[in-house]
Amino acid sequence: RGAAVSVLVQVVVCCGYTGVVSAAGTPQKADSEHANDRFYAGVGIASLAFDDGYGGIDFSDTSAAITLFGGFSLNDRISLELSYDSFDAIDLHDLAGSGTLRYDVKTRRRTAAFSVLREVSLKDVFDWKRDWRVFGMAGAYRSNLHRSVLTLNTSRTSASDDNIDGLLLGAGVLYRVRGIDVRGYVRQFGVSDRNEGREVGIAVQRRF
């Protein structure tokens, strides 16, 4: 975990330095255009491909859920963002275990994340009329996993809770129009140790 925190600090410092340089080189007109819409909040729908394990058996599943997020723009290029989602990450039935054992496995995953986002305006780069942007993100997250396992052979149910801390990386594309942003994105969780899951989604956000 110490190595993960160290990497995150380096990312934040790097992004913060980039933000200062960008702010210094950005015309005052751009700052004035976005001075009144520093905050944003949004909702999206996402698909999560999640890897889990029980009793020495590895398994994976895909699920969909609603995601919530909000953030603050340091300038027109750098933002700080908090997000939350809750997935029925694993819902598998009659799963083969060791020997003759068979399982029903359900894992509910709740995740809170903090990320730094860096945008690049394609409108500025290619002199487009419409405000399309690409962005990258890096951050840290904590997931709470509630796992319920039914052993079909014995009708015995066991439950456990685990917390997972890790780093995430992501990227996406965003379209800005009249205070409303539409974005598509992908986020990879557990990049510093193991690939816990990959989330792909689309979202709408409102700036204010």
List keywords for this structure.
208 residues; alpha+beta; eight-stranded antiparallel β-barrel; 3 helices; 8 strands; elongated
Provide an overview of this structure.
The protein is an alpha+beta fold. It is 17% helix and 65% strand. The chain has helices at 2-25, 28-33, 122-126; strands spanning 39-54, 57-73, 78-96, 102-121, 131-151, 156-177, 180-189, 197-207. The protein has an eight-stranded antiparallel barrel. A hairpin with a 4-residue loop joins strand 2 (57-73) and strand 3. The longest helix is centred in the first third of the chain and has 24 residues, at 2-25. The two termini are 36 Å apart. The model is unreliable at 1-32 (pLDDT under 50).
Q: Please bin the fraction of helical residues.
A: 10-25%
Instruction: Label the structural class.
Output: alpha+beta
How are the strands ordered across the major sheet?
Answer: 1-2-3-4-5-6-7-8
Kindly state the mean pLDDT as a whole number? 85
Question: SSE string, helix = H, strand = E?
Answer: HHEEEEHEEEE
- Spans where pLDDT lies below 50 across 5 or more residues: 1-32
Specify Rg, calculated over alpha carbons: 20 Å
Query: Hey, roughly how much beta strand do the residues contain?
Result: over 45%
Question: How far do the termini sit from each other?
Answer: 36 Å
**CA-based shape:** elongated
Number of strands: 8
Largest sheet: 8 strands, antiparallel, barrel
* Secondary structure tally, helices: 3
